[in-house]
Amino acid sequence: MKRFITALVAASIAATATAQQVNFAGNGHVLIKDKAEKQFLMLPVQEDADGANIQVIVNNAQQQSLNVKLAAGHVDYYVPLDISKFNGKTVVFDIDIWGDKKPTEKVKNYVCWKEISQSDNFDTKNKEKFRPEYHHTPVYGWMNDPNGMFYLDGVYHLYYQWNPYGSQWENMTWGHSTSTDLINWTAQPSAIVPDALGAIFSGSCVVDKNNTAGFGTNAVIAFYTSAGRNQVQSMAYSTDGGKTFTKYENNPVIIGDCPDFRDPKVFWNDDLKAWNLILAAGQEMRIYSSNNLKDWKYESSFGTGYGCHDGVWECPDLVKINDKWVLLCNINPGGIYGGSATQYFVGDFDGKRFTTNQKQTLWLDYGKDHYATVTFSNAPQNRHIALAWMSNWQYANNVPTKQFRSANSVPRDMGIFEADGIYYCTSKPSPELLKMRSSIVKNPTEICEIVVDIKKDTKITLSNTKNEYVTISYDTKTQLLKFDRRHAGDNSFSSDFAAETFVKVPSGSKQLRIFVDRCSIELFDSQGKAVMTNLVFPSESYSTIIATGCKTTIYQLKK
Ligand code: FRU
Predict the structure, then answer these.
(1) Whose CA is nearest to atom 9 of ligand 1?
(2) Below-50 pLDDT ranges, the chain
(3) Which H or E element spans position 2?
């Protein structure tokens, strides 16, 4: 019976596919010439296949170029290429297969030629047991860094590094989601797509309240890295509140002198009454200023001799919190527990130069899965709301999901505190998360918050019936907080995944808050003095808690 159904499905797909003209031109080149009639061309993907480039050509002109791992032996999933704007026209899909399977006899045997078809439907219903409930995720496809976050007229906008054509890193595009509460996110159409200057790498948005750039009052201006032959900085503006963007005709606006030159974060500096921009350039952060968002003056660089330099510096942010300035510096690799992590510096900034006497390396989060942290622009009540990508470049492309890959952290409100003469950042779960608390339950569930009141040395074990478990402990004397995920579940996809992470909580902890959401656990000191974010992939959810030295309250969470 099952076989029969499979055969039926295959037959119907093949029937659609025969309409196409698949031409094998040799040396890995394949041309499909077809009339666009439906909304999507469905592309079958096999994640371990060689990649391919597809040029979409209409009336002799290239309309789009994308990279996709076209299925050779089997199909992992399908991704939709929107061809609706070409409907009624003849489209040439000029495909260049990469790798060593180029000889025509091999390419002809690829299953994709039978599976490619036009369709008016693409099923985005969740197919994944590890898709988080209250964390932001892309509806499908790969996601890394949060980009361009801003707040305007009651709406939080979140853009993100997105691959619409596969669940691994490629084709960087700014995906877009919106929310009124930082918890419930609505997927929006892509905001900024690759062009001749390159893929659209990470960056930021500002609301131009005084029309300094001349695109209109309250125009939303996006800054991003165009990653093509070089990494250069470009801008785009939106006059519909961040829905659609027009690229600035005189891009790029900043051209650098080194290969890793990216991730511009722009902010209004009220002390200076001007704009500042900070970006990563190799092992330093460069600071610029501008009055009109188009012409940028280089001011200074920060980095040499400070913090960790065991990887590339990326995705900076510079935020004034109380009277101090915090410079966020994401680094990969070289993070405290290997791979990616966010270090920070607390200091002073006069609009031109950032200075600090902070010598030791401080991390914003002491887990393994917290990267590319940046804050929302124009946030209400002068809040400093941060989001991080909840993964690590060591294994992000291989975690056990398919329909989508990666989530963002829960929103966190950043602050500052001082202990023993050192300024630290705090990261507290944003107050919006409290609204999700519903009933108090006895046992952990796959979507819950556990509040831990520490009485003495504390140990908490969350486990399931498959003998998979996570251990969290706190030592009142050493003030050491530990999180052990070595036996949490599936570790098989990377030897870098199994890990124990720990941190000394400055001036100690009295209460912990633990957020569980299917494949992630975020552990906060409730005052935000220490945080650890770690992914977990248990084969079934943790349903038992054993806690000693503390009182635990478990809240079922509901969006
Ligand atoms: C950080 C990063 C950024 C870059 C983006 C590309 O994770 O490497 O520096 O802009 O990802 O997707």
Answers:
(1) 314
(2) 1-18
(3) helix 2-17
